[in-house]
């Protein structure tokens, strides 16, 4: 396996978004994600604590791609945000893979891993 194919939080989030786009949110499980990545599910837990943390990272990745609304009227702002969220979930922005912004997420510390068990 080369460096590009190694697991990372960014890769997990990108593949999770791809899985959600194709099969829906209810299809997102650690096992399904592991199958998509051609790894064992246990290897995912080195990068994320559980499905809940994966969902949080996924949501943050999607929200990072949504620009702040420029509308002054709140209804227009809500519509603008909803439209941007729908577009972000439906397909990745041009020139960027889903989850790319997640590369900034730090790895969990050993202390966080020990306290979450």
What does this structure look like?
This protein has helices at residues 9-23, 30-37, 51-64, 74-90, 110-116. By secondary structure, it is an all-alpha fold. The chain has a single domain (3-105), classed as Arc Repressor Mutant, subunit A (Orthogonal Bundle). Helix 1 packs across helix 2 and helix 1 (9-23) packs across helix 3 (51-64). The radius of gyration is 16 Å and the shape is elongated. The chain starts with 8 loop residues before the first helix and ends with a helix.
Topology, please?
Elements: H1 9-23, H2 30-37, H3 51-64, H4 74-90, H5 110-116
Helix pairs in contact: 1-2, 1-3
Largest sheet: none
Number of strands: 0
CATH superfamily: Homeodomain-like
Unreliable spans: 98-117
- What proportion strand? under 5%
Q: If classified by CATH, what would the architecture be? A: Orthogonal Bundle
Roughly what is the average pLDDT, rounded to an integer?
79
Class from secondary-structure proportions? mainly alpha
């Amino acid at each position: 396996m080369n460096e590009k194919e190694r697991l990372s939080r960014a890769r997990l989030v990108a593949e999770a978004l791809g899985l959600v786009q194709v099969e829906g949110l209810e299809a997102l499980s650690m096992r399904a994600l592991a199958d998509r990545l051609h790894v064992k599910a246990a290897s995912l837990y080195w990068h994320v604590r559980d499905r809940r943390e994966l969902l949080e990272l996924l949501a943050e990745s999607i929200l990072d791609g949504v620009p702040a609304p420029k509308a002054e009227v709140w209804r227009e702002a809500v519509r603008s945000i909803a439209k941007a969220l729908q577009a972000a979930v439906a397909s990745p922005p041009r020139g960027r893979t889903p989850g790319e912004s997640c590369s900034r997420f730090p790895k969990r510390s050993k202390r966080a891993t020990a306290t979450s068990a």
